[in-house]
Amino acid sequence: MGYYPMASQVARGGGFLSPAMEDESTNTMKFGNKAHAASLAFKAFCLSLALAAAPQTTLAAAPAAAASATAAEAPAAAEPAAAPAAQAAAPAAEAAAPAAPAAPRMKPTPGVGMPVDGAIDLQDQYSPLGKYGYWIHNGVLLPIIAVISLLVLGLLLWVMARFNRRANPVASRTSHNTVIEVVWTLVPVLILVGIAIPSIDLLAKQYKPAPAKAVTVKITGNQWFWSYSYPDNGGFEVTSYMLNEPGQPIVNNGVREVGTDPSDGPGQLEVDNRLVLPVGEPIRLQITAADVIHSFAVPSLWFKLDAVPGRINEKVLTIEKPGVYYGQCSELCGVKHGYMPIAIEALPRDQYNAWVLAQAGGVIDGQPAPAPAAAAPAAAAAPAAAAPAAEAAPAAAASPSAAPAA
Ligand SMILES: [Cu+2]
């Protein structure tokens, strides 16, 4: 029994009863406790089944509840995808002028690309592989798990009721049954094969290299921030620090507090400079680290890849909808591991191009600033000429792995 009293003993007051004291009433009580515990467990099981069967209902309920607080956010619950452009704070002007040069930071949609209070399901997915993986999890694995659990539970109950000593005083002496043995060997094999087919397919797709024309973005994990460089767009680099929390100790000196800009998302997930990516096309993400191992993970994009010093890990990412998607470093990397979140802002191609050209040294297809869009890039054009040389040096210095990979 060991040093610690068992739960049933604690429930009876912590005493260790001798066998002599285990009279009828105690046994009845024990049975009562067990029956109660069993009914609780059964309720929990049924609840989890119900939740697993209707995860979308649960998820949808949370944003809906949040939205009901402010009438302005009601459209967000009705149609999350349409919401970023339709926020009350940024009226029709934003939607009407998609090619506006210095596009303002996108405001995240509540419940999209971020964790939701009380949710137990995976986050909604916004990449093709994410949707595939989500289907494997909720459409293949969970039903199989539920059916197997119910089958085993049913068998147990049947055996307890039908073959206890009272109901079945003379036990069978059967020792072999070829049919049953073939069935209980073949069925698990078939189940495993059934799981393996989509699973290996997903694995293969996740490691399929990006097409040659894909935009390359290099992601470097640092203690404790992320830096993003754009070798196809002039090689400029963006550093990304978590915003400080109001009323909390300062995490990053010189970085503003979350909530001081209307586009800010949740605290501890929002950053000063987001990773801006084009939407609807494959992006080649090359991930490395400058000091220790980090891990670049964004749940709603089905993306997690370790960032290892001296190595480049590469994976393709396609984001289906414009939006802001949050993640966190997912490899214990030191004292501020919990304070290096990831914020991805996925923009339509024209807005992505405008954002690139607004960066010092940003180029699109080798062109620093196209002539028609004269409004914004005027400021960016001057540094653009000097930038390629200047940008190459810090990019190489930031990560020792850049040279061997190139
Ligand atoms: Cu880290």
Task: Characterise this structure.
With 406 residues, the chain is an alpha+beta fold. It is 40% helix and 15% strand. The chain has 11 helices and 10 strands. The protein has helices at residues 7-11, 24-53, 55-69, 74-78, 83-86, 93-96, 128-162, 178-206, 349-358, 377-398, 402-405; strands spanning 215-222, 225-229, 237-240, 275-278, 282-289, 294-298, 303-307, 313-318, 323-329, 341-347. The strands form 2 sheets. The chain has a 5-stranded mixed beta sheet with strand order 3-2-1-5-8, covered by helices on one side. A 5-stranded mixed beta sheet has the order 4-10-9-6-7. A hairpin with a 4-residue loop joins strand 6 (294-298) and strand 7 (303-307). Helix 7 packs antiparallel against helix 8. The radius of gyration is 28 Å and the shape is elongated. 27% of the residues are buried. Bound molecules: copper (II) ion. Residues 221, 294, 329, 331, 333, 337, 340 line the site of copper (II) ion.
Q: How many β strands by DSSP?
A: 10
What does the main sheet amount to? Answer: 5 strands, mixed
The backbone outline, from C-alpha atoms, is elongated
Radius of gyration: 28 Å
**Tally of alpha and pi helices:** 11
The sequence of SSEs as H and E is HHHHHHHHEEEEEEEEEEHHH
Give the oligomeric state: single chain
Low-confidence stretches: 1-35, 37-42, 45-100, 372-406
**What is the percentage of strand-forming residues?**
5-15%
Summarize the amount of helix as a percent range. 40-55%
Structural class: alpha+beta
First and last CA, distance: 62 Å
Give the integer mean of the pLDDT values.
Answer: 76
Bound small molecules, by name, code or SMILES, are: copper (II) ion
Strand ordering within the main sheet: 3-2-1-5-8
